[in-house]
Design brief:
The complex is a heterodimer of chains A (427) and B (394). Chain A has 427 residues and is α/β, with parallel strands linked by helices. Chain A is built from 13 helices and 15 strands. In chain A, strands 1, 2, 5, 6, 7, 8, 9, 10, 11, 14 and 15 form an 11-stranded mixed sheet that branches. Chain A has a two-stranded antiparallel sheet with strand order 3-4. Chain A has a two-stranded antiparallel ribbon with strand order 12-13. In chain B, helix 12 crosses helix 13. The chains are: A alpha/beta (427), B alpha/beta (394).
Amino acid sequence: MAQLRDKSGRPIVVVTGMGVVTSLGAGKTDNWAKLTAGKSGIRAITRFPTENFKTRVAGTVDFVPVEPMSAPALAERLAELAIEEALAESAIGSRGSFPGPLFLAVAPIEIEWPQRQELAQASGTNADVNYDDLLRAAATGRFRHFHERFLFGSVGYDLAEKFGTRGSPISLSTACASGASAIQLGLEAIRRGETDAALCVATDGSINSESLVRFSLLSALSTQNDPPECASKPFSKNRDGFVMAEGAGALVLESYENARARGAAILGVVEGCGELADSFHRTRSSPDGKPIIGCLHNAIADAGLEPLDIDYINAHGTGTPENDKMECLAVTAVLGDHAKAVAISSNKSMIGHTLSAAGAVEAIFTLLTLDRQRIPPTINYAVPDPTIPLDVVPNVARDAKVRHAVSNSFGFGGQNVSLVMGREPAA
Amino acid sequence: MADALRDVLITGIGIISCLGEGPEAHWRGLNEPSSTADTKMFAPNMVHALGRVDFDKQIPKKGDQRQMEPWQRIGTYAAGLALDSAGAKGNAELLGRMDMIVAAGGGERDWVADAAILSGLAKADNPDRFLNERLMSDLRPTLFLAQLSNLLAGNISIVHGVTGSSRTFMGEELAGVDATRIASARITAGQSDIVLVGGAQNGERKDLLMLYEFGGYCLKDEFHTVWDRRAAPGFALASLGAFMVLESREHSQRRQASPLARLSAVAVQSGTRHPGSIEASLERMWTELSIPDAGTAVISGAPGTEPAAAEERAFLARHPDVAVRATGSHFGHSVEPQFTMNIAVAALALNYGKLFPPFDATGVEQPMTGVLARAVVTGVSHWRGEGLALLEPV
């Protein structure tokens, strides 16, 4: 008889379906093959002109056509692809009817420049356009479709309707930790006994000139544009920022009891989750690393494990000088001597930073790592940073025994979330 | 099943709006209703503007204030008021494990920069290159952080030290309902002991007016109270901040907090709307929560848009013994934080043991004659979803 509850008496929560889209391609098979081959999805941006930008590369998803193009429209389409793959694998519910709520990590939404220009033109003002002109154009009623498209709840409502999820869809943002927060909310809902299943989705399609400039102005992005595939260099001494990217990840979370009862294949277990916010600075971590350390401790404790039980860390690993230094500090503090025995690699070296989607996309890759017992590498690791003495699985994937793994997600605004995942318990 | 120790109590509220700051100012304003909408600032649109606020009182560092745009200052200020009210301010141990769920939209844009870029784009030889150059030179780095939805929560962590957890829900009115619902569910289930919940909006923004103007949802030309907008439906955006501290009874007793009210239930309905669906979903939630009509006051979050207002009116007409007050008439519509604001108003009424007078000439709002036994907050979104909260005396 399988144990259906964890050490704390809560329902064990498993994953029975996963879907993913990144700049490497659509679907787990393609992504996993390329990830473990050390391939990069980063390329020169062609979506908009970049010649006068310092950063001209990104992990855009260019193979998914969307018309008319906007960040929420692309985010929605990427999410649909990921959800369709996850639902097909999980075979839960029926077409258009998912037996649980939707938790959606999605980037904040706003009107973009093409729409602003369309309004300016419609206002009939030829010179010195201002917001009064735009408001006048908006009041004509000709742009009703902009209302729904650019409301913050729009992507979530569309997905909830299309896939028939139950209850009120939750659209959330915890910046670059959003994807992990979506999984966390699903995990908590199942543990509360509110539902047997939850659809946890994270998506981001927001690479446009303004978003690129915004991150660029914060000096957060790599400016080593040539060659593009070498721009993202987590844990390297010459790392100089992250590379923006797009993608989506979808996971069907389910109580172990429900999954077993319906004979679903168990892809992995979400064993625990930890969170702790940082009050130090809007974009930087507390120099002592205490919030990240506390976050990791909380996650491992929530899973009922000890630091020694962790075999692999799927790093947040953005490739900014600050993040990688702080993540190393925290991992070393939590794992102690065991840190040297733990593999830690960054998917972002290959797929870039998928921002709001990262936490879910990387949780999926962590679950695949557990399932295949093979660790994707940190590529572009040519110049080791002596201050980061960790086993970053340099450049080449490797087979390894992985029982329990951690996936870290940290974001602006002091957001820290760590997930602990494992394999199906032996019957 | 029901464990009284896991009851969800409201142990602090922090509110700021055009009516002023704090419970007393709001109670006074609600009891002496008058038209507070500013009809000139963005004519023909109107907004319920925030008066002068001494932000130093809750955000002591000027450097912190400079890093925020108005919506974040308003929210951080209101959160500080709520923590003061709950007796939690400055208690590092408590704040370090206090959870937080913020309901947020996005931050304001720089209208001047946007307008200058748009004007130049029309004349530029190479519009793409022009846009890139101007974005690089005109965007302020801090503005990006002010626009990120989760940076209100981030600022609350920095200024007040709330760090147990930090989550931001988006999605207009329902974000506020769901933030309250999930915070409450976590407390009931023992996943959390104490949560700071709420949000803020700066309604004095042309970019935000534009978003709602696309759908024809803005109140224009002449102010009318919420139930009196049938001829020209719409809402007047509010500048407003509302936070509350929710806490398990057990935890509040242990630290000898003074609860204002019990948040007995939060319900939500969502789905594609069709004629009659709003009325039906309000009725369904009312029935599921077994709410008696006698002794009940409804604090309505009706924005004043249609068909939401007509259907909420139809629902209320089925419950003639229930006293109704729509707060949008008093301080406008703040979208995400409106539900929290109205829960705070309901908690105040329960504390005073009475309801404030009607502010309505249509007859929907009637004086309350009997004893106020409980208050129900409605949160019907202007476009999707309906929420309900039931508050009872502690």
